[in-house]
Specification:
The protein is an alpha/beta fold and about 325 residues long. The protein folds into two domains: about 190 residues, Rossmann fold (3-Layer(aba) Sandwich), CATH 3.40.50.720; about 90 residues, Alpha-Beta Complex (UDP-galactose 4-epimerase, domain 1), CATH 3.90.25.10. Strands 3-2-1-4-5-6-11 form a seven-stranded parallel beta sheet, sandwiched between helices. Strands 7-10 form a two-stranded parallel ribbon. Helix 5 links the parallel strand 5 and strand 6.
Amino acid sequence: MPRVLITGASGFVGGWLAREWHESGAEVLGISRRAESPAGAAEAVDLLNDAAVEAAVRKFQPDFVCHLAALASTGRSWQQPSRCVGDNQAMTWNLLEAVRQHASNATVLIAGSGEGYGVPQQLPVSESHRLAPGTPYAIAKTATDLIGGLYADAHGLNVVRARAFNHAGPGQGGSFLVGSICSQAAEQLTANPGTPITVRTGAAEVRRDYCDVRDVARAYRLLCEAGEPGIWNVCSGSSTSTSEVVALLEEAVAPAQLVHQVDPAFVRPHETLDICGDPAKLAAATGWKPLIQLSQTVADTLAAARSASIGSTTA
């Protein structure tokens, strides 16, 4: 039974990864400030406290370490850029140093981001594309990615640098497109059933490469098990526009009427119109491919948001 340490297991992606590993038969320890994990054990550890991180790694002796803990909102990163970049780096330094000292044979997966590529020079974006992060969040995630590469080169750690593009699914917060529009719809369906639903988004024509979070979690597990160090895109290989995502939500809320409004407050200046990644390297190494269609992702995210909305009104 492999022993898997997951940072950020109380978060959106970390929670799904904890379930993925647990269902595969692994012994899972999720560490976060909240000591919460939907599967396996959980322990309260402040990743900014190097002594606490070292103690957790030394005690658990993991075979796999999946580093997902992060300040993960692009919008919020503009409000606190130094904290976003500084804290994300510090957590990564502390974790990798603890692994170097006490679990040097472990495979470490660093969850980076496709946002690190910046404005694409060509589509789809492969792992050889230059890095040009364009937001504080993207800079922070790129830094953690590069720190992982440094520990691989300087200390011989087996570091898997995963660069995930946009992902969505049940439980996603409102800072992201799918989570936002599903939350908006769920609140209105609960509060005013039978009336038209209005959802607000940024620019309708912007296209992004979406995967279901459950497919992303499976990709992370497969990359760890393959144990091949290096850089790996986690993406679908195609892009979908904001208006197309809203159309999928319209199908999910039927027969309710849905109205889509572009809100200037959500429109980002100089937005890159189209981004999609190349998953060929990941597919060749692990056999991975997305299994969950985006329509199902939207429907499941809406269902989870409706359940949460109903629960909040009856609590």
